[in-house]
Amino acid sequence: MELRHLRHFVALAEEENFGRAAERVFVVQQALSNSIKNLEDEVGVPLVLRTTRRVQLTPAGREFLEGARLTLAQATQTVERTRRAARGEVGRLTVGFVSGLAFGGLPEIVRKFRELYPNVSVDLRELTAQEQEAALRGGQVDVGLMLLPVRDPNLDSRALWRQPLVAALPSGHALARKRKLKISDLAGEPFVFFPRQLRATYFDQVMRWCAGAGFTPNVTQEAIEIPTLLSLVAAGVGVFLPIAFFERLALPGVVYRPVDGAPVVEIVAVWQRSNPTRSPHDPIVQAFLGVAQAELGEQVAAHDR
């Protein structure tokens, strides 16, 4: 039994006339008549009563009409769901992200993605870069959002956002009166920072920057979360060098100042070339990457302005 037979039957039942029904489904009348006869032969019972004036359904035909309409509707829905899946509009996506992106970047990406793709379920997992790489390899995460570098050669990445480091100072600090700093201005200042083992790349980047200015930061207090470090800055414990998008936290007691020659940190989306659960060219993954790049690109332009 083919769907075209069902379409022909529904058209005939609704038009009650072979000629009008044939025009509706764009076939000649004899082809429609043959299609209905083939359908009756397959079902094994008469479905229509043919008269000279109009076509009527048999009791079996009326019952068959209800099922035919339902089957055609389900087929249409299935085709549409398939097409939407091919466009990345339905499904599930698991996204890993480093904690700092919760304060800048991630909310904008997820909000826009959910707006554009409401039928895609997004599962967010806060993971370190190392944990994301492991989860990507194992297929537990589809896309990761992290800072460079990406160490696993089996992972691909796409640049999303470039952000300079800035100086976070207690609001009453003498350097807060300057509009822009040099990194050498911070020589001799107490620093608050992450433990190196938590963010080795970030830590080493800052240390190299400071070493180029002739000093080694005196890290007097460590913490693992950005809000905690900024709270320590507000308390006057030390200064901190966060990525610029943390300025949006606007924590009372903290001021941010640009620094000449500040290193730029690149935020990337990462995925596995041979994901065991989905292709890297999966339309949902590609849709998410497109939204992420568009959203963060707008923020970069706004920041530059």
UniProtKB/TrEMBL annotation:
Keywords: DNA-binding, Transcription, Transcription regulation. The keyword Cell membrane does not apply. PROSITE patterns: HTH_LYSR (PS50931). Residues 1-58 form the HTH lysR-type domain. Pfam families: HTH_1, LysR_substrate. The keyword Iron-sulfur does not apply. InterPro entries: LysR_HTH_N, LysR_subst-bd, WH-like_DNA-bd_sf, WH_DNA-bd_sf. GO terms for molecular function: DNA binding; DNA-binding transcription factor activity. Signal peptide: none annotated. It comes from the Bacteria. One of its GO terms (cellular component) is protein-DNA complex. Belongs to the LysR transcriptional regulatory family. This is LysR family transcriptional regulator. It comes from Deinococcus puniceus.
